[in-house]
Design brief:
Blueprint: H1 6-21, H2 26-36, H3 39-53, H4 60-66, H5 75-94, E1 103-105, E2 112-115, E3 121-124, E4 129-134, E5 139-145, E6 147-151, E7 160-164, E8 167-180, E9 185-198, E10 204-208, E11 211-215, E12 225-226, H6 229-232, E13 239-246, H7 247-255, E14 261-263, H8 267-270, E15 273-279, H9 283-293, E16 296-300, E17 305-310
Parallel strand pairs: 5-7, 14-17
Antiparallel strand pairs: 1-4, 2-3, 3-6, 4-5, 6-8, 7-8, 8-9, 9-10, 9-11, 11-12, 13-15, 16-17
Helix pairs in contact: 1-3, 1-5
Length: 314
């Protein structure tokens, strides 16, 4: 849920606190009605009021406080108003609702952008699955499959953690990408820093902006290394950037976006190095480009498998 603006939110909270405390004078009620006549104000107030309704009901205690003499606000009313202001302020700062247990999935070739309740943004890559586990004390997400780019909303009270590939990734004010592969996972940091904690061993490693790191559920597989993170994020524009990678690895990457399986019977062909920028949406165009830059040819079978072999002379 996204509120209209910070200024209107604060005004809505202030009006709600005054109304709940029972201290509005006739003049203030008229001012409140004038404020509420603005459509954006009314919409924001209704959302804040809905958030209030889900908080514990003060019941008889609040009613009793309202019946006390009006020479001044009772201690209870002031305390309750302060608690209400704090609770609603937390909701506004952290995003409402505080709890979120949604699950997001993408099909092959599909990309999806998710804006979470706290303002954090997730770009979910093709054939991926993400579970959101936001609670009152922590913002936790679990990448179950595929790849995602996380842009974390800063200055929040609750820590932000991503669980992926047998490790916990702790945000340190950042933007980072996580990709899960069959035998390992990759962290690439675009801004800020991320601390990786391996579940099995407790190993910890900080990775800073412009670096990447490989790990699995048992151990860290590499030290943080300088990386062209923008090239790794080219999938957001439906592009794949390869810089002298083995052909077998490049084709595995393409399989994430296309409903196809590649077969390379000759190990020497599998080890051919591929470099360049390719689109991942058009399989035929990719294969045409592949045959142009490498001495290979592609043959499709009826079961959807594509065999890549060395091109025959002549």
């Amino acid at each position: 849920m996204i509120f209209s603006s910070d200024a209107i939110r604060r005004q809505a909270i202030a009006w709600l606190v005054r109304r709940q405390s029972g201290t509005l004078s006739p003049r203030e009620r008229r001012a409140f009605e004038r404020w509420l006549a603005v459509p954006d104000h009314r919409q924001t107030f209704e959302r804040v009021a809905a958030a209030w309704e889900t908080l514990p009901d003060p019941g008889d205690a609040l009613a009793s406080a309202r019946r006390k003499p009006r020479r001044g606000l009772s201690r209870y009313t002031l305390a309750y108003a302060a608690c209400l202001s704090l609770a609603l302020g937390l909701c506004v700062l952290e995003g409402w609702p505080l709890h979120d247990e949604s699950v997001w999935k993408t099909a092959k070739g599909e990309l999806k952008t998710i804006v979470l309740n706290d303002g954090s943004r997730v770009d979910l890559n093709s054939d991926s699955e993400l579970a959101v586990r936001y609670g009152i004390r922590q913002r936790r997400l679990e990448l179950r499959r595929g790849e995602a780019l996380f842009a974390v909303s800063p200055l929040k009270w609750r820590p932000f953690e991503v669980r992926a590939g047998g490790a916990a990734l702790h945000d340190i004010g950042t933007r980072f990408d996580v990709a899960l592969f069959a035998d390992r996972s990759r962290l690439a940091v675009s801004a800020g820093a991320v601390e990786v904690v391996v579940d099995a061993t407790g190993e910890r490693q900080r990775t800073d902006a412009g670096q990447s790191l490989f790990y699995n559920g048992a151990t860290l597989l590499s030290e943080p290394a300088a990386t062209d993170v923008d090239a790794l994020l080219a999938w957001r524009e439906h592009r794949l950037v390869f810089r002298n990678v083995p052909l077998v690895e490049a084709l595995k990457e393409l399989e994430r976006y296309q409903p196809v399986r590649f077969h390379i019977p000759d190990p020497t062909v599998a080890r051919l190095q591929l470099g360049g920028v390719f689109g991942n949406e058009d399989l035929a165009a990719f294969l045409t480009a592949l045959e142009r830059v490498l001495p290979v040819e592609a043959t499709s079978s009826k079961n959807g498998e594509i065999t890549i072999e060395r091109r025959r002379p002549g």
